Amino acid sequence: ALFATVFREASARALLLPRRRPGSRTPMWQQRQRSADLLSAAGRFADFPILLEATRECLQDHFDVPALQEVMASVAARRMRIVAVDTDHASPFAQSLLFGWIAVYMYEGDAPLAERRAAALSLDRDLLRDLLGSEDLRELLDPAALDQVELELQRLADGRQTRSVDGAHDLLRDLGPLTAGELAARFDGDAAAAAGELTRDGRVITATIAGEQRLAAVEDAGRLRDGLGTALPDGVPDAFLEPVAYALRELVSRFARTHGPFTTADTTSRFGADLGAMRAALEALAADGTIAHGAFRPGGVEREWCDLEVLRRIRRRSLAALRREVEPVDAATFGRFLPAWQGLDHASAGVHALTEALTRLQGAAIPASILERDVLPARVLGYREVDLDAMTASGDLVWIGCGAIGADDGRVALVFRDRAATLVPGRDGDPPDGRLHDAIREHLAQRGASFWPDLVVAAGTADEATLLRALWDLVWASEVTNDTFAPLRAYAGSTRRVGRRGSRPRPGTLRRAGPPAGAGRWSLVADLGGAASPTQQAVERAERLLDRYGVLSREAVLAEGTPGGFAGVYPVLRAMEEAGTARRGYFVAGLGAAQFASLGAVDRIRELRDLPSEPTVLTLAAADPAQPFGAALPWPDSAGRPSRAAGAFVVLVDGAPSAFLERGAKTVVTFDDADPGVWAPAIAALAKDGRLRTIELRQIDGTAAATHPSVEALYAAGFADGYHGPTIRG
Questions:
Q1: pLDDT at 424
Q2: What pLDDT digit, counting tens, does each position of 348-400 carry?
Q3: What is the distance between the alpha carbons of residues 601 and 338, in angstroms, rounded to a whole number?
Q4: Does pLDDT of 227 surpass 70?
Q5: What is the DSSP letter of 529?
């Protein structure tokens, strides 16, 4: 590296690297390229003045060679001795080297595939070949880039074919002898007429090579005769019959310049030459530094030969492709990734599928109204309420309220009991305060889990409606839970259907079980598990968030309402990165700069960068954790105000939002000129599948639905005229 730098500077002083524009500076990369070309040409002449000057400058100006000679002579004469010492710690000189090595290679195995391949391709392959004696690029070179370079070298790529007679002659000079069919594949026009004209003019000859008739430029006559022993036709000018010293070597060198990696058998069959002579020619070219020998072609078995300039070209193309993979993906790709990461693209059936889905959703606050209607059925085929009831009744699964939504809904978090101590949601605001609230707390603290009649006696009131409201105030404040899921299902509207006021039952009479929303056995959330330290809670929450989202950003953490926000889990994520269990980088464009990803998520999201051949349509509840818009990602511009409200739906087409159905199923908002022929059937399917009873569209993008341009697509999807607009019923 030092010699190359000194040689470039000496060549520039000697004006051997002329500037293309004398008035402007030459870019450094161009100077290095020209200097490398000059060095490769001058390296064959040992007395080239610039080589001598570069050698003198290195050995006298940069390196203290006389002092080195003195030290080595002293060692040889035993005036100086060498002592090997094993120390517990590296010396100050070696410490910097050791630190640099660790900094480079500590996380090398943890890097995503694209980064590892890009870093490997960035190595100096010439230096690596000198150090190791071989090259293995099978896993690094991109097959598509290699194929494209081969097509361009062979003039088979689009736009590379020749069109003129002179171009056909140049083609034969550049590529070597070709058959009539091979020439026709590279000629845009009548190749036979062009070949006939060139033959009549004496610019092309016909020769038999490897047992087949080929057209060759007359300039190759001497090479074909001396290198392959080809019989030449009469009439070839004497100027083209001069003896050629290294004819076979020149033919093989041209073959290498116009092909990708090839084996010895490829050249032997192409030229019909002796195997020993061909191997000698290839080894001579390798000794001259013209071609390289190694493992290049992806999927290959035998070692190949490749021209160095062709290999650099393939490496540059492969590196460019890998750098595109390293670039952050767009929002639509993340919209395709997140549902796939949470298992919506390969939903399975059974209790095991439900357990896997609940594991990913642990601790997430999900509206109770959509949990069993939209969220779980999207992840479990043939979802059954009885399976969830069995898990809660057995005590394996508990649910915890995370805040009310209006009068008949609220957010709920599902947590496995062994994780309850670390995943219990934090309490925001002041706890409910009132006589009934205190009575319920005191009774559950003293008596433990209790049924509804016990709570009625403890509260000392016959007003079940008031008691039920107080009980659910404590539920949404994350203080009280139930050992079954039935009261949560019954809560919607139950506050308006409780029993009428009446006196307490007389002793000896049959007592009622109470309202459906008060059924089951109630207990305090604090009794679910032992106390966990703040550190344990932060670690568990960070792991759950990373497992749920794959790529975690500040926006996603804030959207979940995680206690402490992003600052609460950031130290844990940073420690996970240092431990090698998470990666930090800029993976998704549009998200915050601080992004953490699990080890497998980075490669998975990059696999989804390319759009599928057929549009993928997915209809999700707007508040579903697998729906990233409005949480991790901002909503695209639209005529409405979409939100992650319970009861709203989003139609994702190839991961990008296409349409948003507001809560109440009366208003639709579309994004980015979405195709109604795609989103209209998806919205109609909500009623056909029973997720919504009735969809009666009144407005689309702020205009009357009946006059909107997409109304025809709605009718085609199954909508019919209604009193207020297009209507469909389940």
A1: 77
A2: 888 888 999 999 999 889 999 899 999 999 999 999 999 998 998 888 899 99
A3: 10
A4: yes
A5: S
Q: pTM of the prediction?
A: 0.64
CB 365 within 8 A of CB 414: no
Using CA atoms, how far residue 474 sits from 342, 495, 525, in Å, is 31, 15, 10
The pLDDT of 211-230, averaged and rounded, is: 92
**Alpha-carbon span 130 to 135, nearest angstrom:** 10
pLDDT tens-digit map of 521-558: 898 888 876 667 788 888 888 899 999 999 998 988 88
Rounded Cα gap, residues 200 and 164, in angstroms: 16
Side chain identity at 270, as an amino acid letter? R
Beta carbons within 10 angstroms of residue 274's beta carbon: 13
Q: Which two tokens stand for residue 679?
A: 């989103």
Cα atoms in the Cβ-side hemisphere of radius 13 Å centred on 712: 2
User: Phi-psi category of 682—alpha, beta or left, where left has phi over 0 and alpha has psi -120 to 50?
Assistant: alpha
CB 203 within 8 A of CB 235: no
- How many residues appear in the chain? 730
Per the listing, tokens 């009718």 go with 715
CA distance 238 to 242: 7
Q: Describe the crossing of helices 165-175 and 191-200 by its angle, rounded to 10 degrees.
A: 80
User: Burial, 693: exposed, middle or buried (Cβ in 10 Å; 0-12, 13-18, 19+)?
Assistant: exposed
Q: Specify whether the backbone of 156 is left (phi greater than 0), alpha (psi in -120 to 50) or beta.
A: alpha
**Which residue shows structure tokens 């996603």?**
556
Is 642 exposed, middle or buried (CB count within 10 Å of its CB: 0-12, 13-18, 19+)? buried
Q: How do residues 40-60 score in pLDDT, each as one tens digit?
A: 888 888 889 999 999 999 988
Task: Print the SS3 string covering 146-185.
Answer: HHHHHHHHCCCCCCCCECCHHHHHHHHHHHCCECHHHHHH
Residue at token pair 């005191």 = 442
3-class secondary structure, 629 = strand
pLDDT per position as a tens digit, 172-183: 999 999 999 999
Could you give the 3-state DSSP secondary structure of residue 208?
Answer: strand
The answer to whether 365 and 425 have CB atoms below 8 angstroms apart is yes
Count of other CB atoms within 10 angstroms of residue 446: 9
Q: Give residue 124's pLDDT band: very low, low, confident or very high (50, 70, 90).
A: low
Tell me how far apart the alpha carbons of residues 420 and 414 are, in angstroms, rounded to a whole number. 9
